[in-house]
Specification:
With 445 residues, this protein is an all-alpha fold. 74% of the residues lie in helices and 2% in strands. The chain has 13 helices and 3 strands. It has a 3-stranded antiparallel β-sheet with strand order 1-2-3, with no helix packed on it. It comes from Catenuloplanes nepalensis. Keywords: Membrane, Transmembrane, Transmembrane helix. InterPro entries: PrsW. This is RsiW-degrading membrane proteinase PrsW (M82 family).
Amino acid sequence: MSEMPPQPQSLPAVMPPAAPRDPARRKRFWRLAGLTAMIVFIAACAIALTVFLGFNIGVDGLLLGTAAALLPVPVLIGAFMWLDRYEPEPVGYLAFCFAWGAFVATGTALLVNSWSAYLFEGWGLSESLVAVLVAPFIEETMKTLGPVLLLWRRRREWSGITDGIVYCGLSAIGFAMVENILYLGGHGYAASNEQYGPASGAQQLLLIFIVRILFTGFAHPLFTAMAGIGLGVAARTAARPVRWLAPIAGLLVAMMIHGTWNLLPSLVAATGETVVLLYGYLGVMIPAFFGTVGFAIWLRGWEGRLTERTLPAYVRAGWLSPPEVATLSSLGRRHAARRWAKRVSGDAGLRAMRNFQFAATKLALLRDGMDRGLFKHVAVAESDERELLDKITAERAVFVGRDPQTPPARWDGERYYITFPDGVSRPVDAPASPVVPIPITTYYR
């Protein structure tokens, strides 16, 4: 009997379709992986830098230097937070810039400066040249690199020059903090303590604290703010050449001011005239400081004035009322609107009004960017615009109609329809200078 041929294995009539890949899930995975890698990298730099400092200046110098270096940090951070009150940046991004400057930028600059000093010594050159030729280049580059990465990966969070100053300022504060630990704990306490005892070390630490913190504590934030201005200009322009040239120009200015400041001690050593340092401080640093502060304050007001120029389009469309736009134009009016919201809706109303104002400011910046042609994908910008409008509507609902002193009113994009005591709704034109936050209860599209 012949053998039966092998029977083919039965196959399913219909193959089940492969599970579709979820692009959003893959994007979240890579985003989480990148975030984790960055946190691990910064943490590794922090550990390495801490071990290096502890080994070189000792535990006592490290602890005392850290305590002294931390004192100005809240003041400096508070100054930048005050500058960013119209549209505060996410805390996570601010923490990233601070940590980048404190650990990555400082660690890299320390390695490069030390290596350069070794090379200069071998070439028979003065070590002071490192502070003039090398330190400004590597320090400003590394301090700015963190905000540049943020601009590259989170461009939508950059609303203008103010953001550039804030992000770069936080990076510079972190850098200055760790550098001050080295100077205060190492060159100050540890060096004098080793030769003359703890009392002399404490005295030297105090003297360096007065010079580096009280008189020149603003130096690093001032230098890197120049690069931040360049990054902010690049974030608010559609011209490709400006996007490249503005950050480079800002970084070069930061390096030149930094190099000029570092040159002064070398000139003092070469000439023996300590008055050179005073002239440089009064003639270079002080004017640069007050000029930058004045520009930053004017810039902060510009964000408030931007709402007056941009948001009337949403008033005409019925999304916002004239009084709401008027309350966004200055910090004083914003504060008054928050007090009103708290009076009529309690703490929930205060939070809602604050969120309403932040969302409206972001909307103004987004619309300004759309008008400038900053977005390649217009559909994405329009989606963001709709999300902000929905958020404005949701936050407004918390305090709308809660004021017993305000009659029922609605806005149709041209005028109010206010219900009078007789129960009749009558049209009323918007006042010339609306400051009372009359809410919208009905929308017309």
